Amino acid sequence: AAVALLWALAWQAKPRWRIVGLVGILVATSLPPLGGFIYGSPLLSAGWIFPGTGLVGIVLLAMSWISVFAFIESKKHQAQIAKYIATTSLLLCAGTSLVLNSQYETPINKSVHAVTTQFARFPKPLEAQYERHEQLIKTAKDALKQPYPILLMPEEVGGLWQPRFAWMWEEVGQAYAAQNKTLIVGFDTKPDGKFANTAKILGVATKSKPVDIVARVSAPIGAWRPWDEKLHAPARWAIPAHTELLNQPYIFIFCWEELVPWPWLSSAVSLSQATGKQVPTVLVMANNWFGKDLAINNAQKRSSQAWARLLGWGSARAANLP
């Protein structure tokens, strides 16, 4: 209802104000705070229509919408010049789309092995927590056999990072470092006293101690809960969007972030400011233990595919399924 209200406000009587409303809402729902809380952005279609064009594809998408709208309105009012301009613009967008789709090749992931797991919610009894970590560590050690330099595991499968478990993972990190490999596992941490959805990076890429990559956007109610001081995971809008592992750029996207525009757009801007022209790989970490009867995993996966396709990035996705 809230999202529908936004679009209703844009549906003004005068065509020019409708266009202003369209652009205004696209901007408002792509930048913080709405860009982290409102999912299902129409911008997702840019990934399928204008692949590999990055932020330019968003401009082309908006141009194609405005061209269609201008064509319909000009037909109503018999404005021939406006009609010709709209038709030309639309044909250019359509032709560009056809060329881009015929030439686009999805970057092949040659560096990351993503592990799919099926664990229930992280348990509360201490004994069960140790069992979970033993299961995860076995999975990580078994994956050393894979011919990839990086192993990616799902979001939050390790629960809260605690000293009592850190020594267990230190041994795993050493095993990975011994084989020139890197391990990435999802945990919760408290870097500033508040919860943060975190990727722990172990192994050769970190040399000695673990490196943390923290999520920028937390899922409303599930994690972003300002009324609950004990469980609140605040949004960290300005955290660096990319990092380098083994001299290659990687973008981290966590679960809820798959669905909302800001993490993807901020990553694209951040990467454009970085040095080097290497194509990055998106490392998506998801955890849908609660989604047995929901289509959320498929929705998240398709959203990530669309964004990665628009930006021309490679991708690897590790999910914990119900």
Question: What does this protein look like?
Answer:
With about 325 residues, the protein is an alpha/beta fold. The chain is built from ten helices and nine strands. It has helices spanning about 1-10, 15-30, 35, 45-50, 55-75, 80-105, 125-140, 165-180, 260-275, 295-310; strands spanning about 110-115, 150, 180-190, 195-205, 210-215, 240-245, 250-255, 280-285, 315-320. The strands form two sheets. Strands 1-2-3-4-5 form a five-stranded mixed beta sheet. Strands 6-7-8-9 form a four-stranded mixed beta sheet. Helix 8 (about 165-180) links the parallel strand 2 (about 150) and strand 3. It starts with a helix and ends with a strand.
Mind sketching the topology for me?
Blueprint: H1 2-10, H2 15-28, H3 34-37, H4 45-49, H5 55-77, H6 80-103, E1 112-114, H7 126-142, E2 150-152, H8 163-178, E3 182-189, E4 196-203, E5 211-214, E6 242-245, E7 248-254, H9 261-273, E8 281-287, H10 296-311, E9 314-320
Helix pairs in contact: 1-2, 5-6, 7-8
Strand content: 15-25%
Query: What's the alpha carbon Rg, rounded to whole Å?
Result: 22 Å
Helix content: 40-55%
Element order: H for helix, E for strand: HHHHHHEHEHEEEEEHEHE
N→C terminal distance:
29 Å
Quick one: biggest sheet? 5 strands, mixed
Global outline: elongated
Put simply, the count of helices is: 10
Unreliable spans are: none
How many strands?
9
Average pLDDT over all residues: 91
Structural class: alpha/beta
Strand order of the largest sheet: 1-2-3-4-5
